[in-house]
Amino acid sequence: MPAQRFFKGPVGFVVWMAAAVVLLLPAAMLVYRATTSDELTKAEIMAQWSGNFSDVQTPAAVSGDEKDWEQVWKLNREAEPEWPEQAEYFAAFYAGSRPTGGYRAETVIEYQDNSVVRVACWVHPPEGPAIMVITYPWVTAVLSGLGERRLELVDCVP
Fold first, then answer.
1. pLDDT in tens, 44-85
2. CA dihedral sign, ordered 143, 100, 59, 54
3. Is the pLDDT of residue 18 over 60?
4. 24 and 87 share a domain?
5. Is 126 in contact with 101 (CB distance < 8 Å)?
6. Phi–psi pair at 10, nearest 5 degrees
7. What is the pLDDT of residue 111?
């Protein structure tokens, strides 16, 4: 019986181990994918507001929760909107001075994992002719789905 000789000894051990890996690896990958994808709740930007004039004239980024909401809107020189239901935190970005009107700031979630959510600000230049006046673009975003994760802010990128 030639097959019995093939599966005995050191060569047989290697063959059995290779067969076990080939047969069990796909099942292990499916179990891993199912447990990791269910555990991470995706953070999201619920709403964002932006403008061109604020009391903050240097690049800055601040975050807070509902109790700090009123203060950030005083800096934004805007009427305070109502705190959205399901919101956990806000992130406010100030882009510093810009030489013309028409700049638009927006927030994006750059990265998230089980321990951190990184939110950044992007500043888009005017798309056409713009008024020649110094502006101070800002954007404030409300976030949900952070849970116990740390919020990291990245200053506005031109």
1. 999 999 999 999 988 999 999 999 999 999 998 889 999 998
2. negative
3. no
4. no
5. yes
6. -60, -40
7. 95
Laid out side by side, the sheet with 104-112 consists of 104-112, 116-124, 150-157
| pLDDT tens-digit map of 22-41 | 554 455 454 444 444 456 78
Q: Do 77 and 96 reside in the same domain of the chain?
A: yes
Residue 32's domain spans which residues? Answer: 2-39
Q: How many domains does the chain have?
A: 2
Question: Which residues are CB-contacts of 67 (< 8 A; sequence separation ≥ 6)?
Answer: none
DSSP 3-state of 101: coil
136 class by beta-carbon count within 10 Å (0-12 exposed, 13-18 middle, 19+ buried): buried
Q: 150-157 and 116-124: which strand pairing? A: parallel
Interatomic CA distance for residues 110 and 93, integer angstroms? 15
The helix/strand/coil state of 145 is: coil
d(CA 46, CA 33): 27
Cβ-contact 91, 126 below 8 angstroms:
no
Residue 158 has a pLDDT of 74
pLDDT in tens, 105-125: 999 999 999 999 999 999 999
CB atoms near residue 35 (< 10 Å): 9
